[in-house]
Design brief:
By secondary structure, this protein is of the alpha+beta class. The strands form two sheets. Strands 2-1-5-4-3 form a five-stranded antiparallel sheet. It has a five-stranded antiparallel sheet with strand order 7-6-10-9-8. Helix 11 packs antiparallel against helix 12.
């Protein structure tokens, strides 16, 4: 194949066949001088791709179909590569109308018209590259959104390997993105299998349903409000750290229990006041009235004793109330 371009210039039967293959190939091809960069030959597919007439194209140099910023890269590439066949990768070329487009270049070293030359095949991959760039931009946009949200987020494939984690999830889970990506979630956080995490994640994955639950990862002492969604090849998990809310809720529950206990004590105090206090108090009042009516009667001394007894009873009741209120 090394001598094929040289044979293209001859008119014998075999050379004519190679010339026809070159010129009629559906793949855009051209030949240029390795030192002067002058175009030496071009096929119809290349002319259609770049928009030139044959005489126009052959009057140009290889640098003229490339963007200015890639000129030095081009010179370096053709001088450094010493192998016969080379995959030069993706380049940006320019059509006659000024439109820039991406091509994938394959090159082959040869001798053409007694000159060191390079046979190049330039495959138009413009739509493919633009589609990939658009997809990359969308992915970056999505990543930017996921990084900016206040929820923790991570994604896993069907093998439980983490494929993405945002910075909020790193903070909540106290881990580094580089350490977690590509790792099995349950192996990285082994204690998480002890709670509801594995059960609910497994249900979301197998039944293709979204699930929501709250659970504490005991190893970190972190409560999470978890929203798990099935996706094509795994799960997407959004979660919020609700540890502080849980602490506040626990404190409120404790306060409610204390209030309920105090209410019970108040009920007992109310019952004591309405029953146990009223009885000795009524007796005292009655004895005082009786003593006043019989001030000169020697039996009043007995009334005084009874008053003392009832007063002691009342004092005991007051002490009991005090104890209940504590």
């Amino acid at each position: 194949m090394k001598n094929i371009p040289a044979q293209i210039a001859s008119e014998d039967g075999e050379a004519a066949n190679f010339k026809r293959i070159f010129e009629e190939s559906p793949a855009p091809m051209y030949i240029f001088d390795l030192h002067t960069y002058e175009f030496l030959a071009v096929n119809d597919a290349a002319l259609n791709q770049y928009g030139y007439q044959r005489d126009e194209f052959l009057s140009m140099k290889a640098l003229q179909i490339r963007s200015v910023e890639e000129a030095e890269r081009f010179k370096s590439a053709i001088q450094q590569v010493k192998t016969t066949y080379v995959d030069y990768g993706t380049w940006k070329h320019i059509r006659k109308n000024g439109e820039e487009f991406f091509v994938h270049i394959y090159g082959h070293s040869s001798i053409f018209q007694n000159r060191q030359a390079r046979v190049a095949m330039a495959i138009d991959i413009d739509q493919k590259v633009k589609a990939e760039n658009e997809l990359q931009e969308k992915n970056l946009e999505i990543a930017d959104i996921l990084e900016s949200i206040t929820d923790g987020f991570y994604a896993m494939n069907q093998h439980w390997e983490v494929t993405y984690i945002n910075k909020e999830a790193e903070r909540i889970l106290n881990c580094k993105r580089a350490d977690l990506l590509g790792k099995n979630l349950w192996e990285f956080f082994p204690q998480s299998k002890e709670g509801r995490f594995y059960q609910e994640y497994q249900r979301a994955l197998t039944e293709k349903v979204s699930v929501h639950f709250e659970e504490c990862y005991a190893a970190l002492g972190v409560w999470g409000s978890m929203h798990v969604y099935p996706k094509k090849d795994g799960l997407a998990v959004y979660f919020v750290d609700v540890t502080e809310q849980k602490k506040i809720q626990a404190k409120q529950n404790m306060q409610m229990k204390m209030i309920e206990k105090q209410n019970e004590q108040l009920k007992k105090i109310s019952w004591i006041q309405s029953h146990e206090v009223r009885a000795p108090l009524s007796n005292i009042l009655g004895l005082v009235k009786l003593a006043k009516e019989n001030e000169d009667d020697s039996s009043c001394s007995g009334i005084i004793d009874l008053l003392e007894q009832e007063a002691i009873k009342l004092d005991n009741v007051v002490r009991k109330i005090t104890e209940q209120a504590q």
